[in-house]
């Protein structure tokens, strides 16, 4: 069976090849009536765009890779999911496809299922990296190979990279300050991987807030990576050194803490307050509703794609760093 070409589509639809190309590339320079007619012919004829050939001709694939740390097989949280959705929306507006790939700052998978294989093969134009660590091997590789990339997080190793990040020092600081101003004196701060830059910055901010006031006991627990570990860590803390407030890096992990508090016969916030970070929709629907520090997901998506597209399409060296200001949303839990 003869393979259908763009020329065939143009003849059947009664339009130019250029018009067919515009429809395929979702150009606005096509009347809606014409677009529908061409799309109908494409569907009827079973025409498929050869994306690789198209990319080779343009020397650009209009594809970006989003790398997210494997998190011991858990991959991502609700927060990751919400920001990735915003990245996909913004990328689509610019005409880019998005591929999501697991990765790790300490090593990459050397096979054709890993997103780095696509980058090495020239089958993607750039990357966005989540969950960076110091001496991150992914960042080193991208820099050495002149591949455009943006980090979601603060780069502690290079001064010429591009990143978009919440001011995580401030997130830790305003969280600690809020709890202290509410009268809480024994605060347990739970975070994930100690190696992640984000957690180092949040810890530093929290400790500075606590050090400004006398008689505040601060306890920091790392490796609280999901609801299960949050629950287990909270049970242990409540049995050995009961705090009067929990501060949790990641709202969904707060569900584990809520359960631990309830099992111990305590109430929120009368006996123990709970404060989260992320301000995901879940916060409004658990009881008591969860106070949280907001990370504006839409802003993350917009800045990441705006910077990456400029990097991809510019021959000049660009260094842009965006800090997004955190905002406290107070609800019933504090």
From TrEMBL:
Signal peptide region: none
A Pfam family this chain is assigned to: LacI
Keywords from the UniProt entry: DNA-binding, Transcription, Transcription regulation
InterPro entries on file: HTH_LacI, LacI/GalR-like_sensor, Lambda_DNA-bd_dom_sf, Peripla_BP_I
Cited CDD domains: HTH_LacI, PBP1_LacI_sugar_binding-like
Descriptive protein name: Regulatory protein, LacI:Periplasmic binding protein/LacI transcriptional regulator
Cited SMART domains: HTH_LACI
Gene3D superfamilies in alphabetical order: 3.40.50.2300, lambda repressor-like DNA-binding domains
GO MF annotation list: DNA-binding transcription factor activity; transcription cis-regulatory region binding
Domain HTH lacI-type: 4-58
């Amino acid at each position: 069976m003869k393979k259908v070409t763009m020329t065939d589509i143009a003849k059947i639809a009664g339009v130019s090849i250029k018009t067919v190309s515009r429809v395929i590339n979702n150009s606005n320079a096509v009347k809606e009536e014409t677009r529908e007619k061409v799309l109908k012919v494409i569907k009827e004829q079973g025409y498929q765009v050869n994306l690789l050939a198209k990319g080779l001709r343009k020397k650009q694939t209009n594809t970006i890779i989003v790398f997210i740390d494997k998190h011991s097989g858990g991959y991502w949280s609700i927060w990751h999911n919400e920001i990735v959705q915003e990245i996909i929306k913004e990328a689509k507006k610019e005409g880019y496809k998005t591929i999501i790939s697991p990765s790790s700052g300490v090593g990459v998978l050397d096979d054709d299922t890993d997103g780095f294989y696509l980058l090495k093969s020239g089958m993607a134009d750039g990357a966005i990296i989540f969950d960076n660590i110091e001496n991150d091997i992914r960042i080193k590789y991208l820099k050495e190979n002149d591949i455009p990339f943006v980090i979601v997080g603060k780069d502690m190793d290079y001064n010429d990279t591009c990143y978009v990040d919440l001011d995580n020092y401030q997130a830790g600081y305003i969280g600690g300050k809020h709890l202290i101003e509410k009268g809480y004196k024994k605060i347990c701060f739970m975070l994930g991987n100690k190696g992640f830059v984000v957690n180092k910055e949040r810890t530093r901010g929290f400790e500075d807030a606590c050090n400004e006031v006398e008689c505040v006991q601060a306890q920091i627990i790392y490796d609280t990576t999901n609801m299960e570990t949050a629950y287990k860590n909270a049970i242990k803390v409540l049995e050995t050194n009961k705090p009067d407030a929990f501060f949790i890096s990641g709202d969904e992990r707060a569900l584990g803490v809520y359960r631990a508090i309830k099992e111990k016969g305590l109430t929120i916030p009368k006996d123990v307050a709970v404060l989260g970070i992320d301000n995901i929709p879940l916060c409004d629907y658990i009881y008591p509703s969860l106070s949280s520090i907001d990370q504006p997901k839409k802003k993350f998506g917009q800045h990441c794609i705006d910077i990456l597209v400029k990097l991809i399409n510019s021959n000049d060296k660009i260094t842009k760093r965006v800090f997004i200001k955190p905002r406290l949303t107070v609800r019933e839990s504090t």
